[in-house]
């Protein structure tokens, strides 16, 4: 269960992000969508969650806010990882170990989404859940590569092809705020810092306000980020 204290701590962390930070609203809204997806998995208190491609452990607080046990995995050289993947991105663990595999903003960077998802399938327990987020529309951001973008239908098909039962595809940030974000990103790097900061601050306010004009059904068609919740059949 997620407690009021957990959400207070998450809110405090969000407030630490500067008002002018260029993707402030995307961070907030993605965190909220991941909490919803993780909660909907209905794993027991303390259930193990593998963050497959953990980066700087940006989603550790999200997992812990859902009263789940966070385990980080990433490629060699990432000192934030609890588990070091091999050079092919494979997890050096026995199969059927985790209740949930979390993949947050990773899939667009992997050379083979099919192999990546097959590895997530392998380490999930039967009946376990995959919670995955990736981009519908976003600016180019290599880390070290940036290879893929999806439509909602395409992402659903990509996940289902690996044997998962797709429970839900949720969109984060609809068409209008997405357009404002892209405008901001096209302009901000061309401006001096003293001007780009207030521009980003204004755009982020507009993004937060205009996203309220979209219904969930609209975001499920056109979104900046998609969040998938899927199950490995028992």
From TrEMBL:
Gene3D superfamilies with a match to the protein in the record: Vaccinia Virus protein VP39
Molecular function (Gene Ontology), one example: methyltransferase activity
Domain of life: Bacteria
Entry keywords, A to Z: Methyltransferase, Transferase
InterPro entries: SAM-dependent_MTases_sf (IPR029063)
One Pfam family hit: Methyltransf_23
Gene Ontology biological process: methylation
Designated name of the protein: Type 11 methyltransferase
Naturally occurring in which organism (per UniProt): Oceanococcus atlanticus
């Amino acid at each position: 269960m997620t407690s009021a204290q957990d959400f207070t701590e998450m809110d405090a962390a969000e407030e630490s992000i500067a008002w002018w930070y260029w993707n402030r609203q995307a961070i907030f809204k993605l965190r909220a969508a991941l909490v919803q997806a993780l909660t909907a998995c209905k794993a027991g208190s303390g259930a193990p969650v593998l963050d497959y491609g953990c980066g700087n452990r940006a989603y550790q607080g999200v997992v812990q806010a859902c009263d789940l046990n966070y385990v980080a995995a990433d490629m060699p050289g990432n000192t934030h990882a609890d588990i070091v993947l091999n050079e092919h991105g494979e997890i050096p663990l026995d199969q059927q170990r985790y209740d949930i595999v979390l993949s947050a903003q990773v899939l667009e960077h992997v050379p083979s989404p099919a192999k990546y998802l097959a590895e997530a399938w392998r380490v999930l327990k039967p009946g376990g859940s995959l919670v995955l987020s990736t981009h519908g529309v976003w600016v180019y951001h290599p880390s070290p590569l940036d290879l893929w973008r999806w439509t909602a239908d395409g992402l659903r098909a990509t996940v289902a092809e690996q044997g998962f039962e797709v429970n839900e595809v949720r969109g984060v940030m609809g068409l209008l705020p997405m357009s404002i974000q892209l405008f901001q990103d096209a302009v901000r790097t061309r401006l001096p810092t003293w001007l780009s900061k207030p521009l980003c601050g204004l755009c982020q306010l507009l993004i937060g306000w205009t996203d309220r004009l979209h219904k969930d059904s609209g975001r499920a068609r056109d979104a900046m980020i998609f969040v998938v919740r899927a199950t490995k059949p028992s």
